[in-house]
Amino acid sequence: MAVNRGTSVLGPVRAGALVGVVLAGGEGRRMGPGVAKPLRRLGSRPMIAHVIERLRPQVMDLVVVANDPGFTRLGATVIPDPPDVRAAAEREGRRLGPLAGVLAGMEWAVAHQPHAGWILSVPADVPLLPLDLTVRLCGLMHVPEPDVLAIRHGRRRHPAIAVWSVKLLPALRRAVLEEGVRRVEGFAERHERAELAWPGPSGPFRNVNTPADLAALSSALRKRP
User: Fold this and answer.
1) d(CA 60, CA 62)
2) Is 105 in a helix, a strand, or coil?
3) What is the pLDDT of residues 11-54, one digit of tens each?
4) Given pLDDT bands bounded at 50, 70 and 90, which one contains residue 130?
5) How many whole angstroms separate alpha carbon 83 and alpha carbon 90?
6) Contact 189/150 with Cβ under 8 angstroms?
7) Residues β-bridged to residue 152
C-alpha cells in the first residue's frame, strides 16, 4: 500500500470494501462524431484506460458500464445499462444519463460482490483521478454514515464522483424505472448525503468534453517529467 505523506501520494491507496463503477455510457456529443469519447486516445492509450488504471488498485473490484461493444477490449468487466431501463428511456424519448449507470453498477456489485456495502462511481472522462480518492472518501465516513458521499472542489460539485450505499438499490431502481429520475443529484437529494471538500487544485477532476480539452490534456501530459 502506498503511503500518503501530506499531500504527496506515492501510489494508489485502497480503503474499504468498495466496488468501482466507471460510467462510460454518455453520448459525448461535444466530442464530435466517431469513436466514443472514453475510447479517444490520450497519449498512447484510450482515455478510459487512464481512469481504470488509477481506480482499480483503490477498490476491491471494478466494472465499466458502457453500451458500446468497443469497450470490451479494455481488459475490464464491462456491463450495459439495465435493459428494462434502456427500454423505458426509449419509450420516453429521453437519454438515460449517469444515474442508470450507477444503477447497473450497484446491481452488479450486489450480485457479484455481496460483501461490498458501497460502490464508488466515477465518470470515464476524468483521466487524472486522484490516487488517494478512496482513502479520503472513506476517511470522511462516520456514524451515522451518509447514503451518498460526493466530491466538491471549491464551488463545483462532482455528483457522479461519489460513494453510494448499496442499500439504496430498491429505491434507486424504483426512481429510475418507475419515476423516470435521470439526474444523479435528483436522486441523491432524497437521501442522507454529504460532500467531501477536496483541497488543492482542481486538476485531478479535470474532465474532457471536447477535442480541444483532449488536445490540451495530451499536451500537458507530454510535458510532465
Assistant:
1) 7
2) helix
3) 565 566 899 999 997 666 666 666 788 998 888 899 999 999 99
4) very high
5) 11
6) no
7) 157, 197
Specify the pairing of strand 61-65 against strand 18-23: parallel
How many Cβ atoms from other residues are within 10 Å of residue 92's Cβ? Answer: 10
Q: Where are the alpha helices (DSSP H) in 25-149?
A: 47-55, 83-92, 98-112, 133-140
Q: Quote the pTM value.
A: 0.88
**Cis, bond preceding 201 (omega within 30 deg of 0):** no
Between CA 34 and CA 207 the distance in angstroms is: 19
What torsion, rounded to 10 degrees, do the Cα atoms 83, 86, 92, 98 define?
Answer: 140
Backbone angles phi, psi at 118, to 5 degrees: -145, 155
177 pLDDT above the threshold of 50:
yes
* Grid coordinates of 13: 491507496
What domains appear along the chain, each with residue ranges and CATH number? 12-223 (3.90.550.10)
Handedness of CA 127, 3, 149, 119 (dihedral sign): positive
